[in-house]
Specification:
The protein is built from 14 helices and 5 strands. By secondary structure, the protein is mainly alpha-helical. Helix 4 runs antiparallel to helix 5, helix 9 crosses helix 10 and helix 9 crosses helix 14.
Length: 390
């Protein structure tokens, strides 16, 4: 207690909050007892843990960095921002280190092109959701390597070539606004493929566990991507996958994003001790939030209620739309204006994950096609032929 505080009023403050013996803590513990039989789903940046309830042991499934093909596709999809960063170094900052960085990137691009083949994607990387598309993915990768190498070699010979205009016209747009293939379309395809694989596997995993989506308590814990990303429902790829896995049955008000919550490390050698130890604290976190939320209807019945499902998506088909604050609607797999606008948005909006620009669309297409990736049309890949003679 400091000299500037009133002990009587501070005691009043701790009677309701900021104390393990407070009325708020009492409410949380009481609410926790009523949900001990409900399943709890916790997502970290890399894994899902499903706690069935009643003290039954959890099961864990990895969905990101430990999964096949994620790093390989990310390496290819990030060629666009990597080259743009070199342009930024040279054009905006006059930093001559772009040359050494360009040579380093070029070396890796040449190595990647040499290693790339349909056999690599079919036999080594071997992602179930990509089955039947391995040749097309290899052709798309080869095109991306070739376009990147050509642009970098031209810039290294003549630095005046390294400009925002050539970046857009000669590289990102494929050298022609009407080109059927481009680095922009490749980025959309690779982000879509990654999201489709993750969602496909998670849907299968949840389906085998027969989750009761009307009772499940969902917490997305810890950091998701860059420090400012994925902190709202409509910017979290993980939230999008979970909703799709539920076939959109999960009530949004049962899912909480808790970027500061404790999270477990990916279990090694089947050791689930840390996962088990966090069940009770995470259950109390969920019920604490829920108990506070339920006070709203008790105290303010008759006034408009908060409805998290009401998320507005702008339509950039309207040419008068020049600024957006949420992801624009994608009308179909050829809606390049919307999808390329999303590429811009995930760079400019710190809330977004770079890889999340088409996750919601990939998830919705899987839901519409009974979680069968072979029936989904992959934008930027299906129906296109990437040239391999560059």
């Amino acid at each position: 207690m400091t000299a500037s505080e009133s002990p009587e009023l501070v005691d009043l403050f701790t009677t309701y909050t900021a104390s393990p013996n407070s009325i708020g803590s009492h409410l949380t513990h009481t609410a926790s007892r009523t949900t001990k039989e409900d399943p709890l789903l916790v997502a970290t940046s890399a894994d899902f843990a499903l706690y069935p309830g009643n003290g039954e042991p959890p099961t864990v499934e990895g969905f990101r960095l430990s999964t096949r093909g994620f790093k390989e596709l990310a390496g290819i999809s990030h060629l666009g921002p990597a080259v743009a960063s070199l342009v930024q170094l040279h054009h905006t900052y006059g930093d001559e280190s772009w040359r050494s960085e360009a040579r380093r990137l070029l070396d890796q691009v040449d190595r990647g092109r040499e290693a790339n083949s349909p056999e690599l994607w079919r036999g080594t990387i071997a992602v179930e959701a990509f089955r039947g598309r391995e040749h097309a993915i290899a052709d798309m990768a080869d095109y991306s390597f070739a376009m990147t190498a050509r642009y970098l070699r031209t810039a290294l010979k003549d630095s005046s070539y390294l400009t925002p205009r050539t970046l857009r016209d000669d590289y990102l747009n494929g050298g022609d606004d009407n080109s059927p293939t481009s680095i922009n379309k490749m980025m959309i395809a690779t982000f879509f493929l990654t999201a489709m694989d993750t969602a496909h596997r998670m849907m299968k995993w949840f389906d085998t566990r027969k989750v009761d989506w009307n009772r499940v308590m969902v917490i997305i814990a810890g950091k998701q991507g860059r420090p400012t990303a994925g902190v709202t429902w409509n910017t979290s790829s993980v939230a999008t996958v979970i909703r799709g896995a539920s076939r959109y049955k999960l009530p949004m008000e049962r899912m909480y994003l808790a970027p500061h919550a404790r999270q477990f490390a990916t279990p090694t050698d089947g050791d689930l001790s840390e996962v088990v130890s966090l069940e009770q604290p995470l259950r109390q976190l969920w019920t604490n939030l829920r108990a506070t939320v339920e006070l709203g209807d008790l105290m303010f019945a008759g006034l408009p209620r908060y409805a998290p499902d009401h998320l507005l998506a702008p339509d950039v088909d309207d040419p008068s739309v020049t600024e957006i604050s949420e992801m624009p609607t994608i009308h179909d797999h050829k809606d390049w204006r919307a999808m390329t606008t999303r590429l811009r948005m995930v760079l400019e909006d710190p809330r977004q994950l770079l890889s999340g620009c088409v996750t919601d669309y990939a998830v919705s297409q899987l839901v519409e096609n009974d979680n069968d990736p072979s029936r989904v049309l992959v934008p930027g890949l299906d129906g296109l032929t990437y040239p391999t003679n560059l």
